Amino acid sequence: MTCSPDPAARAEELRANVEHHDIAYHQLDAPEISDADYDALVRELAAIEEAHPDLATPGSPTQRVGAAPSALFAPVQHRSRMMSLDNVTSLEELLAWGKRMERFISGDVDYVCELKIDGVAISLLYEDGRYVRAATRGDGRTGEDVTANVATVAAIPQRLDLEDGATPPSLLEVRGEVYMPTSAFEELNRRQADAGGRLFANPRNAGAGSLRQKDARITASRQLGYWAYQIGEMEGGPVFSRHSETLDYLRGAGFPVNPEIAVIATLDDVHAFCGRWEQHRHDLDYEIDGVVVKVDDLAQRAELGATSKAPRWAIAYKFPPEERATLLKQITVSIGPSGRATPFAVLEPVFVGGSTVGMATLHNEDQVAAKDVREGDTVIVRKAGDVIPEVVGPVLSLRPEGLPEWSFPATCPSCGGPLVRAPGASDTNCTNVECPAQRVRRVEHFASRGAMDIEGLGERTVRLFFDRGLVQDVGDIYAIDLDRVRGLEGFGEISVGNLAGAIEASKQRSLANLLVALAIPHVGSTGAQALARSLGHLDRIVGATVEELAAVEGVGPTIAKSVHDFFANPRNQAVLDKLRAAGVNLEGPGAPDLPQTLAGMSVVVTGTLERCSREAAEEAIKARGGKAPGSVSKKTTAVVAGEAPGQAKVTKAADLGVPIITEDDFEHLLETGELTTR
To answer: 331: helix, coil or strand?
Structure first.
């Protein structure tokens, strides 16, 4: 008889794993697992949280949308959240989504099927018919102001051109996707090749990079396109009853709306629509990776509501990953900032999933053994999702005779020190903290976007500075000898001045950014924000015990031990001394002096509040010592119900006898810790 794993321990392990892979993917550009494997981790975590609502936390990866905006552009607070979509990959999962909807609504449902454009989600804002702002999705709440760049996209109207000369709404927010047409991508790469420049990997990356240029003239030269797919908000315009009517309105106002959109009556027909476009996806002059299916009736949408990060009335049907066969030329090992040794396959370049792939992850020693891939094999390469390539396995029928099995090296390829795998662990690590590869990667990571975001201090520059003795650890960034930098090839007065300005600006990054930048094992953005919010200053984090760190909501024992051990290391203490001396911000947000009126309470917020956002209400709960989970359980103290609350939460609260309170009652609860009974 085998014992089932403890759900709380498994949830903590999954959160730590997801945070680790978020860092590898978003900040280090060194993914270790495929999108499919990552999605599987998140799905497993979501299943545990659904089965055990008391284990759900607001900061869980299952509750997140997108990624935090960078410091390249000014931040924009979205008027209403830009959410992500849940996804399915089969008819069975599509039908299961339909069954879940039946719990909230009854009656016939019509569906709008839209091609899932592989681009960049953009919010456009019009006031009295005139274009005034464009913003990226960011983390769903805060995006980047890309108004000037988006204004160069010819397909986007600068002024609404309504049919019959109708008066434009006083405010209109339109959501859609900016993309690079395949033909424009191919032409761009031809120009790059002729000029001896860097080739772009795929239309999505080229489009995103073109959109996020500081010089809008570069954006204008890239022939970007746009498809509108949703009205986010409107004031003073006509009233609609169906989503398809809003698309007709947008089309009539001058917005490009995809001509392949269809209204379909049954999920079987929806599935057939998806299958047809899966077969013909490459017939288009733009990249798609699936179909978005939406409930057409807006009243039914209101009944369905949304989870913390996705609407219940929409689902993304994702096409399966594309696969190709190619030659595995060599298996190499790379060393990460924390010493993790990750095997990679060096491939004969192959075009798969929209980009040319020359390297693919093999995850760890066990995965190489399990897949039994060998140097010289013909292997199947999968581009899972649209970004991360992985080796699925060998084509055994094509294996040459006598190919030896690959074995994990015993020594680090950078420093020659031992590579160690602890008993029961899946990872192999270089234990030499002075390993050149680790030191370089730590500085690269520290300066990367999502960490301290030091523009101009990329991989090539960091390695050059190491070679010239200008930098030895992250603390040295703030004491770089700029006179010596001026003597290096390619560094004129302007570039040196820009670098100096970027380094100086990084001193004001948030404490959460600094915690991420330090590359503490298992600490990603969510854990960093939880620590910064709860403890408020780096010195309090450094001085905290493992137990005190583990008590922070969203941290837990795995992250707590990692943080404690990291700051106990004398080498890391020396780095912190340099950061202090340089004037780097060590203080977090938080409001530690607020009375802890909600200590021990769990308060769920649902619906739209009049006097503050739901996010602000949840922060107010946490700041007063309470918990703000995303679901109702028997441990819930109260449910704060604003306008259009989630019916599932309200129903469950009523079934469990949990008090449902108004916004006025909530403010009284914050002040006094007492529930008002009515």
So the answer is: strand
Nearest to 223 by CA among 149, 146, 285, 153: 153
Q: Specify the pTM.
A: 0.50
Q: At residue 100, what are phi and psi to the nearest 5 degrees?
A: -65, -35
Taking the C-alpha atoms of residue 412 and residue 419, their distance in angstroms, rounded to an integer, is: 6
Is pLDDT of 408 > 50? Answer: yes
| Domain CATH number, residue 401 | 2.40.50.140
Query: Among residues 414, 434, 467, which one ends one of the domains?
Result: 414
Q: Please state which of the ranges 4-8, 52-56, 266-270 shows the lowest mean pLDDT.
A: 4-8
Residue 521 has pLDDT above 70, yes or no: yes
Domain range for 164 is 75-318
Q: Do 176 and 312 lie in a common domain?
A: yes
Check which CATH number belongs to the domain holding 281 and give it. Answer: 3.30.470.30
What's the distance, CA 513 to chain centroid? Answer: 15
pLDDT tens for 190-204 read: 887 777 666 675 788
3-state secondary structure 266-306: CHHHHHHHHHHHHHCHHHCCCCEEEEEEEECEHHHHHHHCE
Tell me the percentage of the chain whose pLDDT exceeds 70: 90
Q: Is residue 664 part of a domain?
A: yes
Q: Is 426 exposed, middle or buried (0-12, 13-18, 19+ CB in 10 A)?
A: exposed
CA pseudo-torsion sign 621, 625, 626, 629? positive
Q: Do 314 and 342 fall within a single domain?
A: no
Q: Are 514 and 508 in contact (CB under 8 A)?
A: no
- Indicate whether 542 belongs to any domain: no
How many Cβ atoms sit within 10 Å of the Cβ of residue 64? 20
Q: Which of 116, 318, 622, 652 is catalytic?
A: 116
Q: How confident is the model at residue 26 (pLDDT cuts 50, 70, 90)?
A: very low
Residues 212, 172 share a domain: yes
**Does residue 200 share a domain with residue 86?**
yes
Task: Please tell me the distance from the alpha carbon of residue 554 to that of residue 365, in angstroms, as a whole number.
Answer: 30
Q: Structurally, how many domains does the chain consist of?
A: 4
92 and 183 inside one domain: yes
Spell out the residues 6+ positions from residue 352 whose beta carbon is closer than 8 angstroms to its own.
322, 323, 324, 381, 382, 383, 389
Element (H, E) at 82: none
In a domain, 380, yes or no: yes
Cβ(104)–Cβ(303) under 8 Å? yes
Cα–Cα distance, 80 to 306 (Å, whole number): 13
Please give the torsion angle defined by the CA atoms of residues 15, 16, 19 and 25, in that order, rounded to the nearest 10 degrees.
Answer: -120
Q: Is there a contact between 20 and 524 (Cβ–Cβ < 8 Å)? A: yes
Query: 89, 163 in Cβ contact below 8 A?
Result: no
Across 184-193, 566-575, 601-610, 630-639, the highest mean pLDDT is recorded for 566-575
- pLDDT for 128-145, tens place per residue? 999 999 999 888 888 889
Is-catalytic flag, 561?
no
CB atoms within 10 A of CB 546: 14
